[in-house]
Amino acid sequence: MHGPSPDTLHPFKGEPHTVFLKNTITRPNIEVGDYSYYHDAEDATDFENRNVRYHFEFIGDRLKIGRFCALAQGTTFIMNGANHAMTGFSTYPFHIFDDAWHGQFEPGSIFDHLRGDTIVENDVWFGTNATVMPGVTICSGAIVGAHSVVASDVPPYAIVVGNPARIVKLRFDEATIERLLEIAWWNWPIAKISQNLKAIWGADIAALERAECEPESDLDVAAEAG
Asked: In the predicted model, is pLDDT for residue 18 greater than 90?
C-alpha cells in the first residue's frame, strides 16, 4: 500500500540497474535521503566511486542529496578536490608529485577558494550524463537536462540545460512554486504521500494543501513505525 521500503537496495522489481542510492553509500561525507534512486545499466551500486569525483575527506566538503531525487545514468558530481590553484602564474599541481615541490606549496592558494558543500534538495530529476560542479545548490523540484553542466545554483522548479546550464523556464508560476515549497510534500510520512499521489501527479495543489492540514492518521503512524 505504501510502496517499497526505502531500505530496499533494488526497488525496481529487483532489477540491478536501479538502486535506492542511500543503501549504496559508505562514505561519511555523502548523505542521501530516502527514495532517491540512481539508474545505471553498468553498475548502479558503485555510484560513490564512479560518479562522485575528487571527493577527499581532508578537504571537508560534503555531497548532500535529498529525498525523491531521480538520477539517470552518468550523473556525476565534481567535488572541490578537483580544483587547482589559480592565484599564481601556473595551475599545474607540482606539489602532489614530489616532497620538494610540496614544501613550496601554499595551501591557501586552493583552500581559500573552495566553494563548500554540494547540495541537491528534494524531487530533483537529472538527465543522462548531467554533471554538477563543486559547491552548487540545486533546489527542490528542479530538472537538469541531459549532458548539462551545472556550474551555478539552480532555483526551485527551474529547468536548466546546456554547458554551462542555463534556466530555460520555470515549471510553474512563482506563486505556485512558493505554495509547493510551503507544502514540502517530500517531508510527509510515506503513508500520507501514498494517499495523495493522485494530487501530486495531477498537479492539484489545492488538494495537497488540504492534505497538509490534515492530522497525521493512525495509518501514517503505523507506516512510519514499521
From this structure: yes
For the question of residue 84 being annotated catalytic, the response is yes
The torsion angles phi and psi of 57, rounded to 5 degrees, stand at -60, -35
Quick one: average pLDDT of 153-166?
98
Separation between Cα atoms, residue 108 and residue 53, nearest integer Å: 22
Dihedral of alpha carbons 19, 22, 23, 25, sign: positive
- The catalytically annotated residue of 84, 95, 102, 113 is 84
C-alpha cell read off for 79: 567535488
Is the peptide bond between 6 and the residue preceding it cis, with omega within 30 degrees of 0?
A: no
pLDDT in tens, 103-145: 888 888 888 888 899 999 999 999 999 999 999 999 999 999 9
198: which 3 cell numbers? 493522485
Give the residue from 150, 156, 115 showing the smallest Cα distance to 130: 150
- Residues 226, 224: Cα–Cα separation, whole Å: 6
Instruction: Describe the strand order of the beta sheet including 63-65 as a list of residue ranges.
Output: 30-32, 63-65, 118-120, 137-138
The three-state secondary structure class of 76 is strand
Q: Residue 199: which residues within 8 A CB-CB, separation 6 or more? A: 205, 207, 208, 211
What single-letter DSSP state applies at residue 157? T
Residue 130 Cα distances to 113, 118, 178, angstroms: 24, 14, 26
Summarised one tens digit per residue, pLDDT across range 21-74 is 999 999 999 999 999 999 999 999 999 999 999 999 989 999 999 999 999 999
